[in-house]
Design a protein that fits this description.
Radius of gyration: 23 Å
Structural class: mainly alpha
Shape: elongated
CATH topology of the largest domain: hpI Integrase, Chain A
Largest sheet: 2 strands, antiparallel
Number of domains: 2
Number of helices: 13
Number of strands: 2
Distance between the termini: 64 Å
Oligomer: single chain
Helix content: 55-70%
Strand content: under 5%
Length: about 300
């Protein structure tokens, strides 16, 4: 669909969504488009001129069919957000005159609490590091140290350009977060040195343009998140760590460990790039649950009752 290309560009440039979100939203819009071909069969032709004919009952029918197929609430919530944004785009672009989502509410889902690594687990992962002449292995260690020391989302880390990477102390990194919101994040010297070693080893950075990506794949293009996720999975298996140890858990660990050491919640919010303090407050509950577990396990009176 031509309109889908326009929607993709609008999401990237007007809304500042990351490429993975854009791709996922495109898929959800296409699934809705395919649904209409069956839903409108014999009544209306499914063309790009008929977006204004879509009514709230069509949206309800789409989600009713997904629920019958046992599609999860979280997946339906993503589809809801994608389609709602798509119809906002249609209205702003004057392609459609009405918005069928005005009277609809997003499905409520209970988001899981962050699952950070313990300090012991984090140390075990970081201690895997040894200086290597293999630039790909050094790159992955650089990503590991950088994400844990800054709390970056994996996509934020992999989108860092050479010109954004700090070269003098204090090492302040300019990060472009969700919706193009920029923030400055300090980089620990340990992480900075690990990245610098990777830079010297990587063959694609010697004559690279300043605007090009810092982290490269084996063929020289920007590193894809899946490749670092695979490396994390290998490290996790080597250390026999639980399945929730992922690149994103490093971000959770960054926030949780700062909070445990007395950092102010507002400062953590700023470092993480959270638009709402409510998102950051999840780490308070996570820390409280951890303390409750320790109390339950180690208190002498609790041991007597077992």
């Amino acid at each position: 669909m031509k309109i889908l290309k326009s929607f993709s560009l609008w999401m990237q440039h007007a809304r500042g969504l990351n490429p993975l979100t854009v791709k996922r939203y495109d898929i959800e819009v296409m699934l809705f488009w395919d649904f209409l071909k069956t839903h409108w069969a014999g009544e209306l032709p499914v063309t790009e001129d008929n977006w204004s004919n879509i009514q709230t009952m069509d949206i309800r029918a789409f989600f009713a069919g997904r629920i019958e197929k046992n599609i999860s609430k979280s997946t339906n919530a993503i589809a809801f957000s994608a389609l709602k944004l798509f119809f906002r785009f249609l209205k702003e672009s004057k392609i459609a005159t009405s918005d069928p989502f005005l009277t609809l509410k997003r499905p409520s889902i209970k988001l899981p609490l962050p699952r950070p690594l313990s300090l012991t687990q984090t140390t075990e992962v970081l201690n895997l590091y040894t200086e290597s002449e293999n630039w790909i292995l050094q790159r992955d260690f650089a990503c590991l140290f950088l994400i844990y020391s800054t709390g970056l989302r994996i996509q934020e880390a992999l989108c860092i350009s050479l010109q954004d990477w700090p070269t003098v102390s204090p090492f302040l990194l300019k990060v472009k977060g969700k919706r193009h919101k920029e923030r400055l994040v300090p980089v620990l010297e340990e992480a900075w040195s690990t990245v610098e070693r990777y830079k010297k080893l990587c063959p694609y950075l010697t004559h690279a343009q300043p605007t090009s990506s810092l982290f490269r794949g084996a063929r020289g293009k920007q590193l894809h998140p899946v490749l670092f996720q695979k490396r994390m999975r290998r490290w996790r298996q080597t250390l026999n760590l639980p399945d929730h140890v992922t690149p994103h858990s490093l971000r959770h660990s960054f926030a949780s460990h700062l909070l445990s050491n007395g950092a102010d919640l507002r400062d953590i919010q700023e470092l993480l790039g959270h638009a709402s303090l409510q998102s950051t407050q999840q780490y308070i509950l996570t820390s409280a649950l951890h303390l409750k577990k320790i109390h339950h396990t180690l208190h002498p009176r609790e041991k007597l009752s077992q």
